[in-house]
Amino acid sequence: xxxxxxxxxxxxxxxxxxxxxxxxxxxxxxxxxxxxxxxxxxxxxxxxxxxxxxxxxxxxxxxxxxxxxxxxxxxxxxxxxxxxxxxxxxxxxxxxxxxxxxxxxxxxxxxxxxxxxxxxxxxxxxxxxxxxxxxxxxxxxxxxxxxxxxxxxxxxxxxxxxxxxxxxxxxxxxxxxxxxxxxxxxxxxxxxxxxxxxxxxxxxxxxxxxxxxxxxxxxxxxxxxxxxxxxxxxxxxxxxxxxxxxxxxxxxxxxxxxxxxxxxxxxxxxxxxxxxxxxxxxxxxxxxxxxxxxxxxxxxxxxxxxxxxxxxxxxxxxxxxx
Amino acid sequence: xxxxxxxxxxxxxxxxxxxxxxxxxxxxxxxxxxxxxxxxxxxxxxxxxxxxxxxxxxxxxxxxxxxxxxxxxxxxxxxxxxxxxxxxxxxxxxxxxxxxxxxxxxxxxxxxxxxxxxxxxxxxxxxxxxxxxxxxxxxxxxxxxxxxxxxxxxxxxxxxxxxxxxxxxxxxxxxxxxxxxxxxxxxxxxxxxxxxxxxxxxxxxxxxxxxxxxxxxxxxxxxxxxxxxxxxxxxxxxxxxxxxxxxxxxxxxxxxxxxxxxxxxxxxxxxxxxxxxxxxxxxxxxxxxxxxxxxxxxxxxxxxxxxxxxxxxxxxxxxxxxxxxxxxxxxxxxxxxxxxxxxxxxxxxxxxxxxxxxxxxxxxxxxxxxx
Lengths: 322, 371
Description:
The complex is a heterodimer of chains A (about 325) and B (about 375).
Chain A (H helix, E strand, L loop, with lengths): L1 E6 L19 H10 L5 E4 L8 E4 L1 H9 L4 E7 L6 H15 L4 H14 L4 H11 L6 H10 L4 H8 L5 H8 L3 H13 L4 H18 L3 H5 L2 H7 L6 H16 L1 H16 L6 E5 L8 E5 L4 H14 L3 H8 L2
Parallel strand pairs in A: 2-4
Antiparallel strand pairs in A: 1-4, 2-3, 5-6
Helix pairs in contact in A: 1-2, 4-6, 6-8, 7-9, 10-13, 12-13, 13-14, 14-16
Chain B lengths: L7 E5 L6 H9 L5 E4 L6 H4 L5 H4 L3 E5 L6 E3 L12 E3 L2 E2 L10 H4 L5 E4 L2 H14 L5 E4 L10 H4 L2 H9 L4 E7 L16 E6 L3 H7 L6 H13 L3 E9 L5 H15 L5 E8 L1 E2 L1 H10 L10 E3 L5 E3 L1 H18 L5 E3 L4 H8 L6 H12 L8
Parallel strand pairs in B: 1-2, 1-3, 3-7, 5-8, 8-9, 9-10, 10-11, 11-12, 12-16
Antiparallel strand pairs in B: 4-5, 6-7, 13-15, 14-15
């Protein structure tokens, strides 16, 4: 391996054969290069053609140097005759793993390249490379990560920013690029926990299947867009409201039963300290009654209220919903 | 029904000792066959294809079951259960019903047939003879269709006469096929009930792809009645969709045009239920299936099922239609709670034992008087 100053003009910046990093434009990297210059040399694969040295390690550093207008970079040059392409890629992989945790998209890129570019068998990917990447050695994990490679750029950005859960990303990666592109703006407008994100996507998929439409059509209906665009709501509130809206449409009978129950309960005018909860899905007529009191007086008052409630017609109706 | 024809057969080395293996291979002459030593070692290969659940069934594995064949029906945990037993002679089914629980339940996607049928019968005999005062209703349709593979296994020829020899047991062969030819000349002695899972032709066409048509199933039931077998029917799963009433009412009418209600042992009703994982599988494997479109809520054992008022309505109407056509036939609910029984049937059995006793009586097994 030869170490020397390499003019940036002889490097092929378009070649991504050995790229692992997801984000190349890092402000912090540029600041570091500006402040102290390049500390660790990059690694390049020497090529005879002009401007054709391939980047092996140092994509972000080299992009940073180019943005800063630097002319050269200290680089170690690998000879293509000394290493197979897979060996070169493994150098890039180990270099990355030695100093940082790869993001899910980067792990996906590594696995995709190993499988499709270098022909590594699934068995080796599962037993050797998944643990190397800190992932569980299971075929379904491999399948999920390989599918991430099909993720639309807008969804990749959301995943990178932590606004898209890995499980949801895997689910969306199975969809067509058009569907992915159509879903991304709605997901970007709201904040959802991983669990709620999964539920929203499931509900939207169900509704799409029932209506014979697409996920994009469901998530771009007027009611959803209105919520997503409501400036009075926080991103979290939007997420919850969209979930509630989709749930109501997917489960009209359950939702109607819940609404009826709440309306009848309201007619009882019970104090806030008394809680009435039905079976969550009205499987049985059981009703849970709870109350909180802090004194004997409060206890007596609550019991009196409950006693009056016994004679209310709405009480019977609470059980008739069932 | 589309008959099962594997693309390859893998025989476990121990299974070569069983005569049933050679008999089955003779019936499947021409299919490439090889010997294996370890079924589990095949799993990575069998599960490697993206659509391994479909592709896996093209492999038939003949092996021995080293564990137990007989167990309580999974419904045993329900509030009211008929106390049924199941014996598993095979794992998996080629009939490709969209809602089939085996898709999520089986680890091995190949179709497996156990060749040590003698061990199966030995185990059943020991278990049944240990409790002479109890009636055992035992089915073979839990992890496979009871008769869809009978043209390969010919196991009905062994099991039906075997159950005739057990005074306190009755065998129920549950199927979606019309494959009853082997039953014709068998001496069953009243100890075998042949039963069919029924659905409207529309559901059969869209959700039960390789099964027999409704007409074929009912025709087979009539033949079995003519041969002296008592028959049963299972509307399970009942599937809710717009217009279900018209279709299911027609099935009930058709049923009693084909069969004599006096020879019907029982009819069960059970609404569609499945796990969240199975729902994902169905979506992926059968994107046109209407099965995942119902309004489901989580229920017993975390399974999804129709919202309770939907089930109440389906059961009540089905029972009424059956009653109009055949009031003498006993109808029961499978894996349902007491409240649903009461709302849809007007009353519930006092306990699982009451239901089981009623069904034992219907099974027609005469226990020794001194037991």
